[in-house]
Write a structure and sequence with these properties.
CATH topology: Rossmann fold
CATH class: Alpha Beta
CATH architecture: 3-Layer(aba) Sandwich
Largest sheet: 6 strands, mixed
Number of domains: 1
Radius of gyration: 17 Å
Length: about 220
């Protein structure tokens, strides 16, 4: 695929639905990438294209003291119930109050469930994933976008986040294992084959379909 040819998200959604279940009856789809790369927006649009697929935001699982040390909790509280065909429940983290609860998230064992956030494609989760999508934006550009989005009130947080994220991806990179790369373009998104195009059928989303765009 050449140039910035947008990929209609309904086509991508149809491809993901055809993948074999990876976590019990669920096709668990990870959307990973650097902070500020647009994961949340893309995951929301993809969920809409999937007819309202549940989305787990890793911001609801992580905390100030556990920016990346949430793997065991995620496997126990989210992955294990879904693998049994049961709904998963977990208290959400309040980043203002710096504590979990009282709100609780519930994820039903839908045909497709999306996990979005930095580290969604980490080593411990990959065996449970049907596909790993990487938001393909350079680290520094993503961080600059994130800082502009959050404003100066969050500058101290970002000062601590950047070295923590760099350390995480140095020790446990996700991009080399991505099945698909997602790049934002003026008319929507282009979806390209990733470094690890291991899932049968993913090549279909890289074929041109003309000027159709996802907005």
């Amino acid at each position: 695929m050449t140039g910035h040819q947008p990929t209609p998200l309904p086509r991508l959604a149809a491809t993901l639905r055809r993948l074999p279940p990876s976590c019990g009856p669920v096709r668990l789809i990870a959307v990973d990438g650097h902070a500020g790369s647009g994961k949340s927006t893309f995951a929301r649009l993809l969920a809409e294209a999937l007819g309202g697929a549940p989305v787990l935001r890793l911001d609801d699982i992580a905390s100030h003291t556990e920016l990346f040390d949430w793997t065991d909790r995620l496997l126990r509280r989210i992955v294990e119930p879904l693998s049994r065909g049961e709904s998963a429940r977990h208290e959400t983290y309040d980043w203002t109050a710096r504590r979990f609860g009282p709100d609780e998230l519930t994820l039903p064992p839908s045909p497709v469930v999306i996990i979005e956030g930095v580290g969604a494609g980490r080593r411990a989760l990959r065996p449970h994933l049907a596909a790993l999508l990487w938001m393909d934006m350079p680290r520094e550009e993503a961080w600059q976008r994130g800082r502009r989005r959050d404003g100066t009130v969050q500058s101290d947080f970002w000062d601590g986040w950047e070295p923590a994220e760099l350390r995480h991806f140095t020790e446990d990179p996700s991009r080399p294992f991505a099945h698909l790369l997602v790049r934002q373009c003026p008319e929507g998104y282009e979806v390209l084959s990733g470094p690890d195009e291991a899932q049968a059928g993913t090549q279909i989303v890289t074929e041109s379909e003309g000027p159709s765009a996802v907005r």
